[in-house]
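Following up on my earlier thread - several people asked me to post the actual chain instead of describing it. Fair enough. Here it is, all 506 residues.
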Amino acid sequence: MVVDAVKMSGITKSFPGVIANHKVDFSLRESEVHGLLGENGAGKTTLMNVLYGLYNPDEGEIEINGKPVKIGSSNAAISFGIGMVHQHFQFVPRFTVLENFLLGASSPREPLLEDKNQVSSRIKNLSEKYQLPVDPNRLMWQLSVGEQQRIEILRALYRGAQTLILDEPTSVLTPQEVIQLTSIINALISVGKSVIFISHKLDEVMMMTHRVTVMRDGKVINTLNTKDTDRYELARMMVGTDIKKIPPREKNKPSNKPVLGVNALHVEDDRGLSAVNNVTLNVKPGEILGIAGVDGNGQVELEESIIGLRPSISGSISLNGKDITKASVRHRRQTLAYIPSDRYLRGIIRNFTVSENLMLGKHLKEPYSSHGFLRLKEINGHSTELVNEYQIRTPNISTKGGKLSGGNAQRLILARELSSKPEVIVACQPTRGLDVGAIEFVHGKLLEQRNSGVGVLLISADLDEVIKLSDRIAIIYQGRIMSALITSETKKETLGLLMAGVSEGK
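Reply from S.P.:
Thanks for posting it. Predicted structure:
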């Protein structure tokens, strides 16, 4: 009889007004990679938080290696051999690798009084055993994202983890780092470890897992052998309906005259340090120019400078050949649509209604206002049309914007921006945190705009998204454009090297 490494039976967890998990059954075998899929709010993170001891279930049982256990805290979970690597890493950037290992680690002595030479030796031994090269004396902030992730995995193993929960582990990795992570996972399962792999990237789930469980509305829809399914069936189970295919990229012949131009741009961050260094790029009508790079390489400062929210130190920005470097945000927005990287900070006003959010930027224009007075009939009619066209799920147009889910807030922003008939769109992290159905919807709308002759600047940390949508790709690293390449003529591995700062030809 095969005993599961982890078995969760009848798990129910409720919050005020919401049943996050309803009688969920989930099992993980020894030496297995088990994928966990679901839309935002499907309940998968809640389920894993129950397993890791961050939540106590209202009902249900958990067994570890066939024995019933009560997991009342993350320390208890660790004692039962469960480790979790969160999507947002849990470390102190200014501490060394070794110092971060000491934090929270059980010790007969106070952790910071532990013999650091012995701890360093144990880290190096684990590093060699699992082929996870680590220098215990390096400062965490000096490491690449891929190296930081390796530290988090190794720290869980240091604490005795037999089961690893990986939450969106590839969301900020370069292609080369994804390959390295795959090798790490294979090495772990070869020595009897088990892995729960939470991801929204269906291709990676298909490539890395043995089985996959799909959740929707707090319930398990199905558990399948990965080899017996495909990404389309998984997407359908996640959403509950067939996913509408995005329109094909038409063979446009973009004009030689750019609709958006950036020339030798220099921008500083909030600390007064250089964030955008001598950046030159252009976007032509009828094309999508993708800006790819690991988060934190100047993308936010570039975004804010183009839209007019952050002043440039030098260089210029132009729309349709006219210099707008010193122009106001309102002036730029006459022809420029903006999908911000933080939808709640700059995309919507939480205390405004859906209708009011949809009218931002249009409220002073006819037919929505006249002689300084708003025309509510026209406003309500236009808002209702957009809610229907963009499938914004809201009780009514008077609902507060802050009550919308992330996907519906993003649909609202798209509806407002694209209905203004822009000539250029600046779309920043347009699908971050969205589920598969919302992602396909956003991608479809951006391609529709591109096919109709609009120029699109796409800034995204998701390389797969950039490759899927872009005609050309510019790689940004430490605030500089490493290279601008034609997507169809470029290998993914080349883009990954550029994202890591490796120049072509090196």
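The radius of gyration is 25 Å. That should answer part of your original question.
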